[in-house]
Amino acid sequence: MAEKKQIPLRVSEQLYAAISAWAEDDFRSINGQIEYLLTECVRQRKRNGSPRPKELDVPPELDIS
User: Fold this and answer.
1) Who contacts 23 (Cβ-Cβ below 8 Å, separation ≥6)?
2) Is 49 helix (H, G, I), strand (E, B) or coil?
3) Are the beta carbons of 60 and 14 closer than 8 angstroms?
4) pTM (2 decimals)?
5) pLDDT at 2
6) Mean pLDDT in the chain?
7) Which of 11, 29, 36, 65 sees the fewest Cβ atoms within 10 Å?
8) CB of 30 closer than 8 Å to CB of 19
């Protein structure tokens, strides 16, 4: 297995709580859930074939309340 890189990550308390609950539902650690979500996003981007989003630097609208 390839060595994994460590990166610092800062998220809001609301986002952390949402990811934490989701990870618990999926029987994953929070780190495992974040890695899973990032992997799925990369796969989806590859499927879409777009080298970049249509709109750059537009903050996402998150409904995590």
Assistant:
1) 29, 30, 32, 33
2) coil
3) no
4) 0.68
5) 83
6) 84
7) 65
8) yes
